[in-house]
Amino acid sequence: MRQKFGLLGAFMLALLAISLFSASCSKNDDPSDNDFFVGTYKGSISYNDGEKSITDDDGRLTVVKVGSSYSFKFGTGIPDINNVKFQQQDDGSYVSVGEGVTGITIDAHSLKMLVSNDDGTWTANCTR
13: which residues sit within 8 A by CB, 6+ positions away? Predict the structure, then answer.
């Protein structure tokens, strides 16, 4: 009997965790509204560092926000961009601020990026 209650409890906990995770990452969820956010944007992404050039017209870009710091996780061998801060604009979108990471605009539905620094140039034109 204890084993059945333990199994039922584990199942309920897993169900609660899944529902909380899916609610916190809905496509209408604005990253700025949460202290923790994970969302995937899809579209055209690219990277060039002068030696290699990577382009993916059907790419995925995962955005992870913890507190006020954003990270951008690319696939297909493109280096990630981490620890980015944002400032809200009048239209409700957010624009990246800070040395070497300006050129990122994000909202609940789209992400546009043109970042160029000593490590290379990243571009993205993606939607959720």
Answer: none
Q: Are the C-beta atoms of residues 61 and 74 closer than 8 Å to each other?
A: yes
Residue tagged 């560092």 (tokens):
49
Q: Cα–Cα distance between 60 and 32 in angstroms, integer?
A: 20
Q: Are 46 and 123 in contact (CB under 8 A)?
A: yes
Q: Is the dihedral of CA 52, 55, 56, 59 positive or negative?
A: positive
Residue where the block lists tokens 């604009």: 89
- Residues in CB range of 98: below 8 A, 6 or more apart: 84, 85
What tokens were used for 69? 């710091």
- Enter the pTM of the model: 0.71
The pair phi, psi for residue 77, each rounded to 5°, is: 80, 5
Contacts of 38 (CB under 8 A, 6+ apart): 24, 25, 62, 63, 64, 65
H or E element at residue 90:
none
Q: What is the pLDDT of residues 70-127, one digit of tens each?
A: 999 998 899 999 999 998 888 878 889 988 889 999 988 999 999 999 999 999 999 9
